Amino acid sequence: MQVTLIQGLLIALFAIIAGIDFWLEGFYIFRPMIVCTVTGAILGNLTLGIIAGGLTELAFAGLTPVGGTQPPNPIMAGIMTVVLAYTTGKTPATAIGLALPFSILMQYIILFYYSAFSVLTKKLDTYAANGETKKFTQLALLPTWIVALSYGLIAFLCVYGAQEPMKVLVNSMPVWLSHGFEIAGSILPAVGFGLLLKSMLKAEYVPYLLLGFTAACFIKFGNLMPVAVIGVALAFIEYYHNKRNQDNEKKIKTMIDNASGNGDDSDGI
């Protein structure tokens, strides 16, 4: 399959929008699930976008910026996973591994911008001290526009300009190397989910994890709706269980306060 010029421009336009959102962290449309789905819709294969989005989102679930460290760029990872799977016919799992170099490239570009834009701080302080609001606003918005245009340019060159070299390179890979990328791409979602669980999992929620894992392994679902229904049911059970415990704690606290003479004035004390 080929990416047309119009499709390349539309993907570049979406990369600009997602890049601004990633830079400002506003609406979180830069997440791979959204990026892959929109890219798949632009390419006319929404199913591919949704499947790739689910896998890529899991791979990036536990990868968040901490301090000065930056994980691979989720926007380029999402775009290139769908584009590579679309143009080469590879599975989304294989395309995840092939898309990582593009994601890392964008990561280094963003890291360069973090350092380069620091020189603007002194000028911004000068404008703020002198009350030059118009110049301050223009200079403050300049990094955002530079980053946005960089996303659009890199996305267009990778998606449309380099699609033929990429297709030739991927199709010329030996079977063992292509299979290696497929295995690596299949492992990445598990690694990302594992990193997420490492920081978020609590002991009291382990039974739910084991129950979901067992259900997913041994029940043949025709679609994911039963899994979602089970998740919602467990969420309601946990919600009402916690609510009941909180109500009981309030009653016990009230009884203790009344017994210790800390009640209101209506008790005559």
Radius of gyration: 25 Å
- How many helix segments? 11
- H/E series: HHHHHHHHHHH
How many domains, as an integer?
A: 2
Helix share, percent = over 70%
Q: Write down the overall geometry.
A: flat
Query: Which runs of at least 5 residues are low in confidence (pLDDT < 50)?
Result: none
Kindly report how far apart the N and C termini lie: 84 Å
Largest sheet: none
Relative strand content: under 5%
Structure report:
This protein is mostly helical and 269 residues long. The chain has two domains: 5-201, no CATH class; 202-261, no CATH class. 77% of the residues lie in helices and 0% in strands. It has helices spanning 5-24, 32-42, 46-59, 74-88, 92-116, 120-130, 133-161, 163-171, 175-200, 206-218, 225-259. Helix 5 (92-116) packs across helix 9 (175-200).
Secondary structure blueprint with pairings:
Elements: H1 5-24, H2 32-42, H3 46-59, H4 74-88, H5 92-116, H6 120-130, H7 133-161, H8 163-171, H9 175-200, H10 206-218, H11 225-259
Helix pairs in contact: 1-2, 1-7, 2-3, 2-4, 3-4, 3-9, 4-5, 4-7, 5-7, 5-9, 6-7, 10-11
Task: Give a quick summary of the entry.
With 269 residues, the chain is an all-alpha fold. The chain is 77% helix and 0% strand.
Name its key features.
269 residues; mainly alpha; flat; single chain; 11 helices
